[in-house]
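Example 126, ligand guanosine-5'-monophosphate.
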Amino acid sequence: MSFAYDDSNIFARILRGEIPNDTVAENDHALAFRDISPKAPSHVLVIPKGRYVSFDDFAANASEAEIAGFMRLCAQVCASESVGLEKGGDGFRAITNAGAHGVQEVPHFHLHIMGGAVMGPMIGTR
Ligand code: 5GP
């Protein structure tokens, strides 16, 4: 997969307001909303508002303001979902899938923040 961005992906459509979402938090550079098919009691997706395909695309090409905005929104989600460690939460798992081997379903960079229960092994056995 290259970094060629597909404007028809579902998260681009959410950002354009074409599809509803259950917003948790938002700032100038990022949006956080609940996963439609939650894998944990709290399962929030954080996405940049810019057109980035994957984590490595975002890490290489996003501006410092976009990166800061994205990361601060992640912190806000950890706090508001009561999973962050700063205020005594029990913790969470943050993962991002990229490309074919990462089994990425939606080609717009997103971080899964999942908590509310013990997350179990990091990945399934093969
Ligand atoms: P990936 O496999 O790309 O890391 O994860 C994509 C995630 O997006 C999945 O967990 C899936 O449940 C979620 N998802 C797919 N379509 C929608 C949608 O239309 N709305 C929301 N809120 N989540 C979606």
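Summary: The pocket of guanosine-5'-monophosphate is lined by residues 10, 19, 21, 33-37, 97, 103-106 (CB under 6 Å).
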